[in-house]
Design a protein that fits this description.
Cofactor: [4Fe-4S] cluster
Function: Part of a membrane-bound complex that couples electron transfer with translocation of ions across the membrane.
Keywords: 4Fe-4S, Cell membrane, Electron transport, Iron, Iron-sulfur, Membrane, Metal-binding, Repeat, Translocase, Transport
Main location: membrane
Structural class: alpha/beta
Subcellular location: Cell membrane
Radius of gyration: 21 Å
Mean pLDDT: 96
Largest sheet: 6 strands, mixed
Strand order of the largest sheet: 2-15-14-18-16-17
Length: about 450
């Protein structure tokens, strides 16, 4: 099998951390007795609850009504009864409106749910409508509504769809398991996305350390010559959207631009697989694969988990804590969000639950910058992180903006490589948020 091999300039090689789960068979979470489903699980406007306390609920039933174009409905992940509609703790750290459902253990499917049929029977608009109705968002962590991503503006010319199968974030193996065990869904979802956008070329980018996934996908592609697998160099952040586009096509997204400006639509392999599942079963997005791992967990593994299950329940299903945790992170160590408690629920974008011991989670004390330039050499966007961080710490937001701070993807490569252990990405993140806040005030 002859594969094109792609990469980008910059990046780092953090400890892999995937050995404990990559070869462990995919597991399936226990049926939950209770789920807490937030009404804010995607980029864009949060949903409004359309059920009330005491209502009977079916699996797959819509419980959250979208508000606006950049929003998607939210569905029940169990059948049972609504026991509360109220604000609950959210992985973002906020209190967010949520629907709490007590399961009856029956998983009675909403009677209105039916398979959509074959892909040949659907046109582009029907595919996008199905994706919206199924509540599908980007499952790589960004959670951007997929139907919006596929609605290419008339002034943009897109000629291909790229699936992101890099999974470059350390520790996480959900996408690897998916590509290896359900490659047919990944390919069908890509074919659906290509039809929705009206293109005849699709790529799947997979890091070259996942040869078993590449082989499974190649077999599932069969005779479809429109789809090509690109073997990617193993490094971080190989799966970042702009870096993936460069590695696969050689094109660059302009500063401040979107993938469509480079003629590309990018989706995660998990998103594609969910499109296929919703197409063939009629069921909305109500579960996902995630990796529960780290040296503070007894039995690290990748599991299929219902939306709304508490982090604590997932950890218990992995044998509980092996040692007192120093940090629990939603996602991976580079771009994940530290949690203040484990009662928060699994959401559509929860790709992993990383549990680290106090020793592993210890943060080194930063010292003065030695002007070594390492942060410049690894930045995948070719920014100057040391200068951006310095401007941010002095509140010089205009200087930050002039030096393209808004192009930063917050990958953390600069902080990782810094010998002085300076928290560069944290300072840059502060600047970006301040600039966004000032823009809103200006409007």
């Amino acid at each position: 099998m002859n594969l094109k091999h792609g990469t980008f300039k910059g990046g780092i090689h953090p400890p892999y951390g995937k050995e404990s789960t990559a070869l462990v068979p995919l597991g399936f979470g226990e049926k939950p007795k209770m789920v807490t489903i937030p009404m804010s699980m995607h980029i864009g406007a949060p949903c409004t609850p359309c059920v009330k306390k005491g209502d009977p609920i079916c699996l797959g039933q819509k419980i959250g009504e979208p508000n606006g174009f950049v929003s998607v409905p939210i569905h029940a992940s169990v059948s049972g009864k609504v026991v509360a509609v109220e604000e609950r703790p959210h992985p973002s750290g906020d209190q967010v409106m949520a629907v709490v459902i007590e399961s009856d253990g029956l998983d009675t499917i909403d009677p209105d749910i039916k398979p959509y049929g074959t892909l040949n029977e659907m046109d582009a608009e029907a595919i996008k409508k199905m994706i919206l109705n199924a509540g599908i968002v980007g499952l790589g962590g960004a959670t951007f509504p997929t139907h919006v991503k596929l609605a290419v503006p008339p002034d943009k010319k897109v000629d291909c769809v790229i699936l992101n199968g890099a999974e470059c974030e350390p520790y996480l193996t959900a996408d690897h398991h998916l590509m290896r065990t359900r490659p047919e869904n990944v390919i069908l979802g890509l074919q659906a996305a290509m039809k929705a956008v009206g293109v005849e070329k699709g790529f799947i980018g997979v890091e070259d350390n996942k040869s078993d996934a590449i082989e499974a996908l190649a077999k599932a592609i069969g005779n479809d010559r429109r789809i090509e697998i690109v073997s990617l160099h193993t490094k971080y952040p190989q799966g970042a959207e702009k870096q993936l586009i460069t590695a696969v096509t050689g094109r660059e997204v302009p500063s401040g631009g979107l993938p469509a400006d480079a003629g590309v639509i990018v989706m995660n392999v998990g998103t594609a697989a969910q499109i296929a599942e919703s197409l063939t079963t009629g069921l909305p997005l109500y579960k996902r694969l995630l990796t529960c791992t780290g040296d503070a967990v007894n039995r690290p593994q990748t599991l299929e988990i219902r939306i709304g299950v508490a982090f604590s329940s997932v950890i218990d299903q992995c044998g509980g804590f092996a040692a007192e945790p120093g940090k629990v992170i939603s996602g991976g160590p580079m771009m994940g969000v530290s949690q203040f408690e484990t009662a928060v629920p699994v959401m559509k974008g929860t790709s992993g639950i990383l549990c680290l011991t106090k020793e592993s989670a210890a943060v080194a004390k930063p010292t003065n910058c030695i002007r070594c330039g390492k942060c410049l050499s690894v930045c995948p966007i070719h920014l100057e992180p040391l200068n951006l961080a310095a401007y941010s710490q002095k509140g010089k937001w205009a200087e930050c903006e002039e030096n393209h701070v808004m192009d930063c993807i917050e990958c953390g490569s600069c902080s990782y490589i810094c010998p002085a252990k300076r928290t560069l990405v944290s300072s840059i993140r502060v600047a970006k948020r301040e600039i966004v806040a000032q823009r809103r005030k200006g409007n």
